[in-house]
Amino acid sequence: MKKEPIKIDFHFAGESKIKIRARGWLCLPVRFRKELAKSAKPEEMVALPYTLDQGIEAISMYPREHYENFILKQVAAIKPKAAREAALIEFVHCAEILSIGSSGLFCLPPLLQEIADLKPGAIAVVSGLGYKVQLANEKLWPEKRFKRS
Predict the structure, then answer these.
(1) What is the C-alpha separation between 105 and 36, in angstroms, rounded?
(2) pLDDT at residue 1, as a whole number
(3) Is residue 5 part of a domain?
(4) What CATH number did the domain enclosing 117 receive?
(5) Which of 32, 57, 73, 75 has the most CB within a 10 Å radius?
(6) Residue 37 lies in a domain
(7) Residue 90: pLDDT above 60?
(8) pLDDT in tens, 6-48
(9) Taking the model in full, what pTM does it have?
């Protein structure tokens, strides 16, 4: 039986900086809201902690339909059981459903603020990485990510 490729109708790209407001409120940049509008539930994203290669704690945000239809199905298919359990901890344990307002405003839950050091007053680097959006504290963001010649 041939597996059909996963269809992704959105592509997040680019980078912006935004300030975290009181109680963890922030606004998703317009370019990301336009892509999110292509999903079945444009008012919802799933956020979970993620450790970058440099050991920096960040937040990955997936459109809810992508998280449910792709990420969770991939995790469920992992064998052996011990590896599946480890993936469940990584992709489900701290996952939070975020409600995104029509203006892009959403609140980052306190646990995720703490994990990624994205407390009120901090500047977040918001990066589009294809099927997900990533948030990281600007002060912890690596200076030399990409060198273009």
Answers:
(1) 13
(2) 47
(3) no
(4) 3.40.1550.20
(5) 32
(6) yes
(7) yes
(8) 556 668 999 999 999 999 999 999 999 998 988 888 899 999 9
(9) 0.84
- Residues 18-32 as b/e (b if ≥16 CB within 10 A, e otherwise) read bebeeebebbbbeeb
Query: What is the DSSP code (8-state) at residue 86?
Result: H
User: How many Å apart are CA 116 and CA 108, to the nearest integer?
Assistant: 11
Q: In this predicted model, which residue has the larger pLDDT, 4 or 86?
A: 86
Q: From CA 84, how far away is CA 133, in angstroms rounded?
A: 24
Give residue for tokens 């590896």.
Answer: 83
For residue 54, the model assigns a pLDDT of: 77
Calpha distance 9→137 (Å, rounded): 28
SS3 141: coil
Q: Residue 36 belongs to what domain range? A: 12-137
Q: What Å distances lie between residue 3 and 6, 7, 66, 74, CA to CA?
A: 9, 12, 17, 13
Q: Taking the C-alpha atoms of 125, 16, 133 and 143 in order, what is their torsion angle to the nearest 10 degrees? A: -40
Residue 1 inside a domain? The answer is: no
Number of domains the chain is built from: 1
Residue 70, in any domain of the structure: yes
